[in-house]
UniProtKB/TrEMBL annotation:
Annotated InterPro entries: Cupin_2 (IPR013096), RmlC-like_jellyroll (IPR014710), RmlC_Cupin_sf (IPR011051)
Organism (species): Blastococcus haudaquaticus
Matches recorded under Gene3D superfamilies: Jelly Rolls (2.60.120.10)
Cupin type-2 domain mapped to chain residues: 41-106
Descriptive protein name: Cupin domain-containing protein
Record's signal peptide: none
Amino acid sequence: MSTPSSERPLVTTVDALLAEQGVRAYREFLRVPVMSLGLFAPAPGHVDTQQPHEQDEVYLVVAGRAVLEIGGTRTPVAAGSIAYLPAGEPHRFMEISEDLRVVAVFSPPGPTP
């Protein structure tokens, strides 16, 4: 599936996205003028080296567990956790469980992958 970039509705599942994602830790699956959405599904042992983004970001943890470090403060997150990160806020996932799955929403859209 290519990244949909129109204003058409999209309905999918995490399993469908994972089947298409392959070995990449992050895959964007929707891009429209006001936001982009992606799935973060790191392999065991993944080290999150992301840098602060120029966009506001929302994370929705849909499976697994991790510690989300935001500006030096560490907070455990698990399925059902939601985090908002304003643009420029340093953050990263640590202590990532084997089955971590996070939907990331960037607004405005993040850089083209």
